[in-house]
Amino acid sequence: MLLGNMGIQLNLPFSRINLNQEQLFEELITEISKFVPQDLSNLRGRRAVYCSGGRSRQPISSLSGKNLGEPNFFSNDVTSTLVVGIDSSSLPVCDLEDGSIIAARASAVFSNNGEPMAYLRLGPYPYHVTSEFVMSKLGINKESLASSIAQDKALSQSLLRKTFERSILATLLSHLSKSIILIDGTFGYGFSSLEKLEEKRLLGLARQKSNSILGFTKVSRIRELWDAASSLFSIKGAPFYIKPPKVDAKHSSETEIILAKFRDDGFVFRLDIPKETEINVLEKLSANDHFDRGYPDSLRLAHHFCVFTQHEDTCLKGRLGNELGLVEVPSDDQRQAILGWMWSAGRGSK
Amino acid sequence: MRVFGKTGNEILVLALPGEVVSQGEYLLIEDGSSRSKMVVQVFNETYLDVPGLAEEIVRDQVMQASIRGAEHDPYEIKSVSSLIRDSRLLHCKARGIIKNGKFRTSHDWLPSRVNSKVSKISLKELFDTVGRQGRRAIELGKGKSGEDFEILAETIDGRLNIITGKKESGKSHLAKMLSSSLVELGCFVFVFDINDEYASLDTKKNGEQSSISSRMVRLVPGESMKFDLEYVGLRSMTSILQHTLDLPGASLREFIRIWEHLSKEDQLTMEELGQAISMWRANDFVKDALFARYHTLLSSKLFTRGGERSIRFEDVIAKSPKGALIVISLAHIPPHARRIAVELMLSKLVDLLEHRKIPPIFLFAEEAHLYLRETHWDDIVTRMRHFGIFTTFITNQPDALGSGVYRQADNVFLFNFTNDADLELISKATTADAETIKAIVRMLPPRSCMALGKVVSDLPVVVEVRESELFTKGETRLFFAREN
Ligand SMILES: Nc1ncnc2c1ncn2[C@@H]1O[C@H](COP(=O)(O)OP(=O)(O)O)[C@@H](O)[C@H]1O
Ligand SMILES: [Mg+2]
Questions:
Q1: What ligand is nearest to the CA atom of residue B195?
Q2: How remote is the CA of residue B472 from the centroid of ligand 1, in Å?
Q3: Domain co-membership, B98 together with B157
Q4: Is B471 found in the same domain as B341?
Q5: What is the residue with the minimal CA distance to atom 25 of ligand 1?
Q6: Which of A5, A84, B62, B163 could make a disulfide contact with B413, Cβ separation 3.0–4.6 Å?
Q7: Inter-chain contact A118–B68, Cβ cutoff 8 Å?
Q8: Per-block average pLDDT, block size 10, for chain B (484 residues)?
Q9: Within this chain, do residues B194 and B282 fall inside the same structural domain, yes or no?
């Protein structure tokens, strides 16, 4: 009886406003008790992975101890193959009455024979993201959806970034052949049917010139994969992969998920790969990219080259401010202002 | 350039990469809304400390070092970023305020950060506003921005000056320039030349005779500079016996009796002095003491014997009425003779000055701790200055000069020091703020110095000392140079 034991002292100065405090409290507690576990004592002795700074961590051995079957070891195929890691990032610059100015930048890193050899970096390009922009450029047809995306800053930022990245991916696909293209994340973008179409189109493009697209995911949000990755962590030897049972609800029909470990000292990663992908693609990837702790260097560099540093943030604001003659309205960090020291003392998710 | 901030008594000015300002230069901060202008001096510069910059520099390094790439950056964020990266913060000291065209050393006004314009101010403009006393210019060299800078001889006249810095930094060169310029202006300049390097001032670099060659006299103690006892006088002689030769009091009294006796008999010569000591009726202890000193004096060869001619400084000066450079060459003189020679000379000069037999003189003393006794320092900076000996000490050992000397110094020419202990001492001893001295002096290239004091109206100036058309070869003798 967690709540019942709390010994509530009802002696509050409510008399003036004519409130039956005892009844109020009783009802409150009854209501909460419906979904608060009354007793956590049955958890005693359970194995747990503590979260750190509000983030989940990867256990180095499985919690469940479930066996996912034998790992499929594969070898390195040193046939020279171009590996391209692509990543993008976006940065909100300022908010206007009718939308936000968001800057986007993408980078691609080309590797071959186990070494990175060149990079492209495009941007930053600032976009004025309004509901018209969402409709005309980000491919959302329904006006109500477009306007609710434009209203939601987080949503419009991620849609812009993905559209931006996809258009670069599409161009690269049409120029390359028999290459392996790595993207950061999963295919299941899925907040519209349009995304599914886009995905289909990209996979089609890739097929035409025998390119393979592989999505690398660093930490899986899906509990079962997360646990499975841990059980693979301790398996000696690499590279290998394993096909876990179907788990991701949003996961598309065109692709499938595997878990792979490319280096003995590396982590296990989730890969989203087109269904028709042959194992040879993994063999070529393993030989043609450099891996650091099991993660392909092309993707790692692409990520670092496109993320915005705090300093670039400052420069970009200064540059746009000067060029457009933006008038800066005094502003406050509301969260900071309201929650103040209590906020900075805590470490909740942001 | 813009005013960026103020911390303590330091004004921070932001300079973009194109705006080249160097340590030691002066800036003028003009505030549109005020009649006052602030004069500040840059004493240090640092990079801007911008959050996230380190991160970006590391990333750029990785990108450039590992692989080649192509970029499209239409908003030129990269160049804005490098602009900021290469911007510098100029750390400045407020030196004073110009109001209604007049300069005041006060710091009671702070210019606006928004409306202020910052620009360089030339030394000429600065000193025209500040004002300096005098009209006899000595061209010193070039300021940091390349403009000619001169000092006025009047600001050295009657002053105590110090030239210090590490070896080979250009101290002697400056001393030679100053001394020869003073002679050109008609002054009488004595030099204690410890390295035999001033005699060459009589020739120009091209081999011709220099403009002061006819006014130069080189005196070698014991050779061309000898004294007869009468010219020396009892006062100087007792002083040497007492201070330099440590003669005990009882013996000194006997010596005075002997001297007075000889003087009365008109027999004041070295020969007679020796005779008299051996004949004198005194105890053996005293006689031994006197004889020992007598032989030291004799071996110094500083005293005339058998018809040799005595030096007479008043004659040397009278012979060269338009100024003279009198170089006392101390290079090859044994240490004790050096001390005696210097002491005799100084006391004789004071004597002559006291009796107005010679005009005031300038004295350049290189590494004076090698021949000046402890008790003379205070004498030089006070009593001798009072009579008209205006000294410039030149040393690479700043701790060899007494602290009293620094306190009394009117002008200091500081060349480079890198040694922390020397910097610490110098920055404590001079009038300018320690921070400026430490930051600037450490970075001074050879041949550049920072002038402090009256010569620059207490506004420290960094000067690259000019070349001289005279032959100012330094002291260093090289083994391998003999072959050429
Ligand atoms: N401003 C200058 N222009 C030309 N030569 C210089 C200058 N200052 C010094 N030198 C030369 O550099 C060398 C060292 O200078 P010096 O004055 O003898 O150094 P210090 O006395 O500090 O040891 C000398 O040969 C001198 O002629
Ligand atoms: Mg020297």
A1: 2
A2: 7
A3: no
A4: yes
A5: B474
A6: B163
A7: yes
A8: 85 90 94 88 88 80 80 84 86 92 85 87 93 91 94 95 94 95 96 93 88 94 94 92 91 95 94 93 91 94 90 95 96 92 92 95 94 82 92 92 85 92 84 87 94 93 92 66 56
A9: no
